[in-house]
Amino acid sequence: MIKLLKYTKKYIFYTLLSPLLMVGEVIFELLIPQVMADIVETIRLTGTTDPVAQQEAIQTILALGGKMLTFALCSLFCGAMAARLASVAGMGFGAGIRNALIEKVQTFSFSNIDRFSTASLITRTTTDITTVQNTFLMLIRGLFRAPIMLVTALAICIKKSKEVTSVFGVALPIILIVLAIAGPILIKRFKAMLKKFDGFNASIQENLTNIRVVKSFVRTDYEKKKFKAANDDLYNASIYAEKLMILGEPLLMVLLYCTIFAVIVVSTKVIANGSLLVGEFTAIFTYIMQIIMSFLMTIAMVAQLFMSEASAKRIAEVLDEEPDIKDPENALETLKDASVEFKNVSFSYNEGKNIINNASFKINSGEMVGIMGATGSSKSSLVQLIARLYDVTGGEVLVGGENVKKYKLHSLRENVSMVLQKNVLFSGTIADNLRWGNKNATDEELRNACKIADADEFVSSFPDGYQTDLGQGGVNVSGGQKQRLCIARAILKSPKILILDDSTSAVDSATDARIRQGLRESLPSTTKIIIAQRVSSISDCDKIIILDNGTVNDIGTHEELLERNEIYRDVYTSQQKGTDDFDEVGGEQ
Predict the structure, then answer these.
(1) Distance (Å, whole) CA 235 – CA 237
(2) Of the four listed, 128, 138, 197, 500, which is most buried by Cβ atoms within 10 Å?
(3) Are 526 and 338 in contact (CB under 8 A)?
(4) Do residues 453 and 496 lie in contact, with contact meaning Cβ atoms separated by under 8 Å?
(5) Can you state the percent helix, strand and coil of the chain, rounding each to 5?
(6) Of 329, 384, 406, whose CA–CA distance to 531 is shortest?
(7) 412: part of which helix (H) or strand (E)?
(8) What pLDDT digit, counting tens, does each position of 261-284 carry?
(9) How confident is the model at residue 45 (pLDDT cuts 50, 70, 90)?
(10) Are 568 and 554 in contact (CB under 8 A)?
(11) What is the rounded (10 degree) CA torsion for 409, 411, 416, 420?
């Protein structure tokens, strides 16, 4: 929690003023019982039938009543203002952490993101931050109020009657010991519950995201069972975590009510001995109730702290995560040219077995290069090293003649445009999605990019054209249309290097050919790297790289590879016969 307090900086005025107003509320509340005691004593002492004395007593009572009302209104004003300021500070604190968390995730490399599941990040951004936010709100409203009320009211009670107050000397230590034992257990149990929240969110996310697959495979019953299992796990973990709270609350109330009963018994004896006035007892009893309420509030804050500790640690894990890939000192911001060179490059995930071994090749500026390989031959991993989405574990990748680690990340990635295997479109219009490539692109530039990607014709056929709403994830367009829109979006970046990672797999061969022709004619100076399974998709490339189990098996033109490379020749032959599947014949599986 202490680490997260820096996000209150923007709301420091509200954070400091709210507790001060709470102190004002406490002061006025503490004055009221004494005035009430004076009223009781005035009534008790006015036993005469003398009209003058009665009139004086009534005037005194009215004056004291007005005084009490004034204190009550002042206390109400201070409390209301403190609550208002605390709410602003608390909501701002939560918003600040959310912004920081999202900004932090945006700096992560793929390897950083791999350490946190999407569901876990959602839980941390929602449930965990809400828990911490509520704890902060409770603290600034009660951090000064409860202890000051408790200590001051206790001091007043001791001054008025040590015998009555001595009852608390037995009860309070017992409660504190119980809290000290229960606290660590609560933290451990709530941490386990939050992990179940991750699994619960993962189940919901997977089900809703893939609802069409679920329905098409008639797996609704299976998904219901899977969700029920995740829901039951969360339910059981929540009950287990709350069990101590559920059991502790009535036990605590029994102890406190026993304390009140003991106070009344002792007070009765003290009043009978003449050591305590009835009016003073009224004040003491009111102070005792304030002490109990303050103590309950303090216990609630401590319990909330125990619960939020686990959430705060989970948030801090993300905020403390250091990005694996950072901008170097004196970073380069300009690429000399669009050449790409791999020098003895090796790569592995999580320091495991290399999935790329000693890959070496060079691509000149403006070349169109094809990459083929069996499933699992690390084609996608290879091209992701160019934009530093991952970093090499051995060797070096050069872009424009310089190691990619020397470039400023923003500059490098602005010049390397990738269309990934999974085509992602966002909610909004087609134009909105295309402008991800260039937010300032004109309508004419959008149309030109779509013409290159062979998308303009089908977009123009829609009633609303480029203003057609795609729906979430682009559900209103087919797989092939989605691929072409993603290619157009990448073209709008005007990149020096364009990478298409199996991005024409859902279009027919004729459309594929038109896209390649458009890229070659419209982007002559852009280096174009195409990963494909179909030989026809790369046969006209300047060179083709064959990957086999993470190693470069061969490099050459279509004709050269047909002549000398058995893997490529077998794939070509099989596809000519209609198999159209690299994995059927070529490369290691």
Answers:
(1) 6
(2) 500
(3) yes
(4) no
(5) 65, 10, 25
(6) 384
(7) helix 409-415
(8) 877 787 777 777 777 677 777 777
(9) low
(10) yes
(11) 50
pLDDT tens-place string over residues 531-586 = 998 898 899 999 999 998 889 999 999 999 999 998 898 888 888 876 445 544 44
Least confident span in 294-303, 331-340, 504-513: 294-303
Query: How many Cβ atoms sit within 10 Å of the Cβ of residue 366?
Result: 17
The sheet carrying 394-399 orders its strands as: 356-363, 340-347, 394-399, 402-403
CA distance 330 to 327: 9
Q: Strand, coil or helix: what is 368?
A: strand
Residues 491-501: b if buried by 16+ CB within 10 A, e if exposed: bbbbbbbbbbb
The model's pTM: 0.67
Buried b or exposed e, range 5-39, using 16+ CB within 10 angstroms: eebbeebeebbebbbebbebbbbbbbbbbbbbbbb
Q: What number of other Cβ atoms are within 10 A of residue 508's Cβ? A: 10
CB distance 527 to 387 below 8 Å: no
- Which residues contact residue 209 at a Cβ distance below 8 angstroms, ignoring those fewer than 6 apart? none
Residue 311, burial from CB neighbour count under 10 angstroms (0-12, 13-18, 19+): buried
For residue range 196-242, list pLDDT tens digits in order. Answer: 877 777 777 677 666 666 666 667 787 788 888 888 888 888 887 77
Rg (CA), the chain: 36
Say how many CA atoms lie within 13 Å of 342 toward its Cβ: 24
Rounded Cα gap, residues 81 and 137, in angstroms: 14
